Amino acid sequence: ELERKLRANDRDFNLSFRYATNAIKTSKYNLFSFLPLNLFEQFQRIANAYFLVLLVLQVIPQISSLSWFTTVVPLILVLSVTAAKDATDDIVRNSSRSSFRQSFRVYEPSSPCLSLDFQADLLLLSSSEPLNLVYVETAELDGETNLKVRQALPVTGELGEDMEKLADFNGEVRCEPPNNRLDRFTGTLVFGGQKYSLDNEKILLRGCTLRNTEWCFGLVLFQSSCWSSAPRRVQDPIFGFLAVMCVVLAIGNYIWETKEGSGFTAFLPRDDGISAGFSTFLTFWSYIIILNTVVPISLYVSVEIIRLGNSFYIDWDRKMYHAHSDTPAEARTTTLNEELGQIKYVFSDKTGTLTQNIMVFNKCSINGKSYGTVAPPTSHRNAVDFSFNPLADPRFVFHDRSLVEAVKLENPEVHTFFRLLALCHTVMAEEKTEGELFYQAQSPDEGALVTAARNFGFVFRSRTPDSICIVEMGKQLSYELLAILDFNNVRKRMSVIVRGPEGKLSLYCKGADTIIYEKLHPSCRKLMDITTEHLNEFAGEGLRTLALAYKDLGEEDFREWKQRHHEASTSLDDREGKLDQLYEEIETDLLLLGATAIEDKLQDGVPQTIEQLAKADIKVWVLTGDKQETAENIGYSCNLLREEMNEVFVVSGNSGDEVQQELRNALSSMKPEAAENSVFLSDATSGKGAKAEDEAVNGDYGLVINGHSLAYALESSMELDFLRTACLCKAVICCRVTPLQKAQVVELVKTYKRAVTLAIGDGANDVSMIKAAHIGVGISGQEGMQAVLSSDYSFAQFRFLQRLLLVHGRWSYLRMCKFLRYFFYKNFTFTFVHFWFGFFCGFSAQTVYDEWFITLYNLMYTALPVLGMGLFDQDVNSSWSFQYPQLYVPGQRNLYFSKKAFFKCALHSCYSSLVLFFIPYAALQDTVRDDGKDVADYQSFALLTQTCLMFMSYWTAVNTFFVLGSLAMYFAVTFTLYSNGMFYILPAAFPFIGTARNSLSQPNVWLTVLLTSILCVLPVVTYRFLLTQLCPTINEKVRQAKATPPPPSQRARIRRTSSRRSGYAFSHAQGYGDLVTSGRYLRRPPMPRPSGFVNMGRATTGFSPMGRSAGYSPTGRSQNTKAPDVEVTSLQMFRTIPDPAL
């Protein structure tokens, strides 16, 4: 599809293109389609289809030696349970069903303060607000929580809410087809003989939330289905094993029929036309029915119950509950719990995931003087008193009084500094009550900067399309807004051009320090050197920095530039390129003002969590959009990078050759013996099916690579070099990466390492990474719920990840592996007895057990022990799991259910079946009852064998309760089914009349049960004893530790000084400065309001400013000194304290 065409109120025209209808389908089934559709989906599962084939075979008398109910009862039970689960899930989805009325949709919250989510991509036609504006929040799409403005075309805005006009509207839209680009839209509207241009500012995307707008009308453009299904098919490798057993028994039947069968024809005559060969054919299918317990249908139901139970454990875990935000952990899927115990690589976002994404203005450098100290977030000791400012934000805390004194003394550079912060932004202010300001910022950084200016006396109050109103030290002033030179990912800066109250033209600019430095006037060289020193100091503390500069403009030059700017902004050809060129022209010869330093605080417990994951041999890769210096310093702060590492490699090449050479240099430093042609993949070729082998390296290394270099490293010719180098490192940081690159890195590791991966993030830009990984975890933080909605698991803090993996993940994996081994063991043992019995019954496909025992064995008799083990088994408790993170390693290597473990399980089952068959067989062969009567009949043998089988259970302290319950159930049901009353009701269905009371009353029967149980258990106990003594595993070593593990050692980390530079983390999305200046965002005219300031006047201390480079301190303190009694931040010094929440 190259172009989408649609016409309002013309259904025939729209249907001719076969577009999707406007109905939203949130349910999979309806009342009539549920049964056939659900059964069709269930029989796509190979086990269900297999049992359906068995049911068909059982209705053929020449084949089946079992009654039909032995298959029908389990099959109906499994189908019913699964259908009930599917119906419940669909009802939940269906509760949110909604639909559109023809082509239009009206959104009308009951109150303007309420919100509503858009369910389709809409062309905005009209709204209740002035100038046909709407306010939307796009947190579910791009992670940004600030309000954005959209405006309808004036021609459609005239439609208002008049239903007759809307019904007569016949505009025709031509636009691009549906795509995944959120930042641009191209289309036209033809209405009334005129063609109008459509862009992203007129589109309401699905997933946006309507805010502060009473109603709006829109034309539906795109709509897609709201539900999807991705069932996982469990491939069962034991069907081949079943076929082999059936072939062996069928061949045995042929040999027996050929040599011995003729001797039995006198009393067992063959049907006409039945030869030995045909008998073999029928016997093969008969044994397919009898040996069906090798593939038990109840396995799937048991697995789902265990997964559901382990998911509830995550939901109910109070130690993963975040009280501050009232957010519990949530398992949004039940199918991945065991994979949580096999994670090898964790891919994490930084901002909002490792950090709080709550920006705090802590320090700044103004005219070569550094201001501010960092204190703990709860400390208000020596905090600046902002009571002189009635409009100050009471939540803002600053710890250097000299900056306030400089403001009060009217230092011109300080005033210009904060004036720039109050003017150069795209923040929107809302004042619900007098003096209570609320800022909606494009990024948390920008909100922190405007709030800082507000507290220091430069309050951003309101704005119109062509003016900005601020309060400067109690005086309300209005600046004419002439242009916004908006931010984008290439410019990495933004500027505003304003005319002050006195008529002076000024350009204010803020951006990344490396970019701003290129635009400075040569006279700023000395000030730049001093500011650089301050930036290095800020970087050593992990702060995010931003440089500020300004220049005065001439009237004539600006008038000429403004004309060219207007021409470029209305151009349809390379509009963005022309505007960027004009921005470059005017943003030159700037005068440096200084720099800001904002702290994005680490979340609680992040360093300890990363340290625990490293001990569990889980490699953490941080994929972030922040600049290199910021990401690197946060890496040191959270223990991802450590000073004791042998080396941290930085890859920042600007070409493919440079990047490849840097990667190979790093590889040769870690492995000097590594040659370029050394074997890295398991296959001879480096195709997608090859596996990258794990390599050992001496020492600990880290790797930092920026987004530009990563683009080359992910090319097909270089991706293996990058992967090999990165996998040899303990930690990897990819900075300045795009959401697509995040997903590509995850896919690269998945493709070649064949390891289980987990991605964790909090914003919409992490969604592609979360979906690419095997398991996605969403952090419900400051950036909306899109990451959570796309994830498999969610919680509020990164520190909960260690409990999710080291406790719940490891327990789930261990329980599932033990459950599968136990399940296959008991079923293989059950089935192998049939196999051995075939050699004693002429391979006639006669069963050993009673048909009712066959039917109820998996559904009733042994269901509780396996479920009890799968839900409650623990090898160690949670505290030991944290004390010994190495317990996690066996799961990464899949040691508990590998091919070797499966073979050992099958071998153990074979031995147990031999004991279960031949011991009772020999015990009853020449045995009589106490009264001298013969006890060696088929029914007594069957009862003794199945009773011995019931004692082959998993005996632990917790599981003993379930085993005893199963035994009680077995004996109760057995005595009931073998009673006289049941025989009188249905003689053909209950032939074992009196067998239970006659056989189980004999002492030799119980002695046989005891002997059989001992012989089955003895080899296992012996093997485990020798293994524990000679080659103990980490689990056995931990279990042998009798004493309670000591508390974690307390380790002090002192401040790390570094020359690495931090940087301002811009978002990937372009700003909305065009909207601010377009006149399309204004809600209502601002009403005049008093400034609310106490006029402080000019200080009377006799101080006069000394100029730009004087660096004078009004307090008399030496420049760049810190107050000795102010505590340092946790990024400089922290102690590892045991957290009870962990």
Automatic annotation (TrEMBL):
Residues 1104-1125 are annotated as: Disordered. It is found in: Membrane. ATP binds at residues 349-351, 446, 487, 510, 544, 624-626, 736, 742, 765-766. SUPFAM superfamilies: Calcium ATPase, transmembrane domain M, HAD-like, Metal cation-transporting ATPase, ATP-binding domain N. Residues 7-72 form the P-type ATPase N-terminal domain. Mg(2+) binds at residues 349, 351, 762, 766. Residues 788-1033 form the P-type ATPase C-terminal domain. InterPro entries: ATPase_P-typ_cyto_dom_N, ATPase_P-typ_P_site, ATPase_P-typ_TM_dom_sf, HAD-like_sf, HAD_sf, P-type_ATPase_IV, P-type_ATPase_N, P_typ_ATPase. Keywords: ATP-binding, Magnesium, Membrane, Metal-binding, Nucleotide-binding, Translocase, Transmembrane, Transmembrane helix. It comes from the Eukaryota. Its cofactor is Mg(2+). Its main location: membrane. It catalyses: ATP + H2O + phospholipidSide 1 = ADP + phosphate + phospholipidSide 2. One of its GO terms (cellular component) is plasma membrane. Pfam families: Cation_ATPase, PhoLip_ATPase_C, PhoLip_ATPase_N. It is a multi-pass membrane protein. This is Phospholipid-transporting ATPase. The lineage of its organism: Eukaryota, Metazoa, Chordata, Craniata, Vertebrata.
